[in-house]
Design goal:
By secondary structure, this protein is α/β, with parallel strands linked by helices. It has two domains: 4-25 and 272-348, no CATH class; 29-262, Spore Coat Polysaccharide Biosynthesis Protein SpsA, Chain A (Alpha-Beta Complex). Helices cover 51% and strands 13% of the residues. It is built from twelve helices and twelve strands. The strands form three sheets. It has a seven-stranded mixed β-sheet with strand order 3-2-1-4-8-6-9, with helices on both faces. Strands 5-10-7 form a three-stranded mixed β-sheet. Strand 11 and strand 12 form a beta hairpin. Helix 10 crosses helix 12. The radius of gyration is 21 Å and the shape is globular. The two termini are 40 Å apart.
Length: 364
């Protein structure tokens, strides 16, 4: 039986870790280069996205960045719905938008294959990637492109979820928490990765690592690519928390879809750096300690531990969401905490016992 002081020590360690994340957010590395106006290629891989694709393309085609300075390439990833016909409609409306159907590739699979073929066609110096179920702000391209000054090879960005209730709200806070950590650790010089629906990089950097064809397949292809580029140590990396580049994604509609998402993320996270595993271990230990402390020592001390944890988490999310002007989503904080506690404890079992990853009608 573990003594209560150990649980309190784990709580203290967790709070210190979150305090470090807050420090990282406060010193987030960010620079703008007003004279920078590179040619940009926006890449979107779409698989059976007829419900959201039109809204996504409307947003991408209505940007503050000059239309003659960017192109949009949509890769139809084996869709069986109206995705291809929607792409044709937009291709006829906008000269700087093209679409194609990704061909089968023996070397690449799924979304990675569609992205690789689209990037091959790209003419831009800067590649920007988002998903077909996302809405980007009008300033998305401009404020990302302006960050590409000398030496900058990668620029990440935050994505939150469209919210209409507690189920969507807890998902959005989860994304804010995870991506806040990603921005914080990047500022601290230990970048852990970026989200693939709000990611940009120099095509030169992509080519230097050999592109997706030269990388080990992963169900989280964005993480693998970012780490490969950063491993070259040839470019600097910015990860701003900025409302002007904030992307909104469609939340998982059901618990089943949410479990599949976490399974995919967790499986892809097995390639994470040692520092990333340390963060996960401290997080898992914190939530396991709450459960064990409740069993062995009762409610009062468990409530104290939970309050300390909640204060730390709320403070961190407040710093992230304040920068994004989305603090109204903190009304879902208690739902997020319940969800967060459950999935952190369940994630290791989901990853190692959950079988093959299922995503977009495919299994990996």
């Amino acid at each position: 039986m573990m003594p209560e002081p150990l649980f309190l020590f784990i709580t203290f360690l967790y709070v210190i870790q979150v305090a470090v994340f807050v420090y990282g957010v406060r010193k987030t590395r960010d620079r703008m280069f007003p004279d920078s106006s590179p040619i940009v290629s926006v890449i979107i891989a779409a698989r059976n996205e007829e419900a959201m694709l039109s809204a996504c393309l409307d947003a991408v085609m209505n940007q503050t960045y000059p239309r003659d300075r960017y192109e949009v390439i949509v890769a139809d990833d084996g869709s069986t719905d109206r995705t291809a016909s929607i792409c044709d409609v937009f291709s006829n409306r906008f000269k700087n938008l093209q679409s194609f159907t990704a061909k089968e590739d023996l070397q690449l699979r799924g979304k990675t294959n569609a992205l690789a073929q689209a990037i091959d066609k790209a003419q831009g110096e800067i590649i920007m990637i988002t998903d077909a179920d996302c809405i980007v702000p009008p300033t998305w391209i401009e404020h990302t492109a302006r960050r590409y000054g000398p030496g900058i090879g990668l620029v990440g960005g935050v994505t939150l979820q469209k919210t209409s209730g507690a189920f969507e709200g807890m998902q959005s806070l989860d994304w804010g928490y995870i991506l806040g950590i990603a921005s914080s650790t990047a500022a601290l010089g230990i970048p852990l990765g970026s989200i693939g629906n709000n990611l940009s990089f120099r095509k030169e950097a992509y080519n230097k690592v050999g592109g997706y064809r030269n990388l080990k397949f992963s169900v989280t292809e964005d993480y693998t690519l970012v780490q490969a580029i950063l491993s070259l140590r040839a470019w600097d990396y910015l990860y701003p928390i900025d409302e002007h580049v904030l992307v909104l994604s469609q939340p998982c509609p059901t618990f089943r879809a949410l479990l599949q998402q976490k399974h995919r993320w967790g499986t892809g996270g097995l390639d994470m750096k040692l520092f990333g595993f340390l963060i996960m271990i401290i997080g898992f230990s914190m939530h396991a300690s709450l459960l064990w402390n409740l069993i062995w020592f009762g409610i009062p001390s468990t409530v104290m531990m939970l309050m300390l944890k909640c204060i730390a988490d709320y403070t961190f999310l407040w710093h992230v969401l304040t920068r994004l002007k989305r603090t109204d989503e903190l009304k879902y904080f208690y739902w997020f905490q319940l969800y967060y506690c459950l999935y952190v404890l369940a994630l290791p079992f989901l990853v190692f016992l959950g079988g093959r990853v299922s995503w977009k009608g495919r299994k990996y």
